[in-house]
Amino acid sequence: xxxxxxxxxxxxxxxxxxxxxxxxxxxxxxxxxxxxxxxxxxxxxxxxxxxxxxxxxxxxxxxxxxxxxxxxxxxxxxxxxxxxxxxxxxxxxxxxxxxxxxxxxxxxxxxxxxxxxxxxxxxxxxxxxxxxxxxxxxxxxxxxxxxxxxxxxxxxxxxxxxxxxxxxxxxxxxxxxxxxxxxxxxxxxxxxxxxxxxxxxxxxxxxxxxxxxxxxxxxxxxxxxxxxxxxxxx
Length: 234
What we know:
2 domains; 45% helix; DNA polymerase, domain 1; five-stranded parallel sheet; 9% strand; alpha/beta
C-alpha cells in the first residue's frame, strides 16, 4: 500500500491494560459519585478520552486546573499500584517489540499518540525501556494543550512530528473515540485492534480499513514503504 509512517495509540494497543484502567476509574466513580460506571459509560465516556473529559463527565461539571491535577493523581496512583503489583507480568502487547524492531530495520518513522498524561507515560518509558525504539520528542501525550480524542489534534500533531502528512500515515487504535480522531485527522489507513469476535463492529466504524487481534497481524512489508525516517541503531 505504500504508507510512509505509523502512529500507535498506547493503552489497549501497545499494552493491554484496559481492565486495569477500568478498575481504577470504577474506584474513582465510586468515590466521587457513589456508583460505578456502566459498560456503556466506559465505552462512550472513558475509553480513549482525556482525564479532563472523564472527570468532567464524572462530576457533571467543568473541572478547574488545580482540582483536575488532584483527581488525575488520585486515579493514576490507583492504576499504577495495580501495574506495579503485576511486576514483570505487566508487558507490552504480543508482537509489539518485533514490530518496533522491524520498523527500525526498515527505517520507517513511527511514534505514539496517547491520551495518557506524563506521569503514566514516564512509568511506561522506564518499565518498558521505550527509549530503545521511540524518539521521545516525537511522542504525543495529554499535556493539556490539545483537545482530546475524538478531536483530531493528537493525530495531526503526531503526523507533524514525524514530518509526514496524515494521509501518508497508518494509525493503530482500539477505541471508537481514537478511531474517530484518526478519521477526522485524515489518516490514510486506520487499523482497529481488538478481539476477533469484535472485528465486525470495528470494521463498521467510519474510516477503519483493517481489523487485527494483535500487532503480530500487521504486515509492515505490505503496508509501509521502506525508508523515510531517521535511522536508529538497535
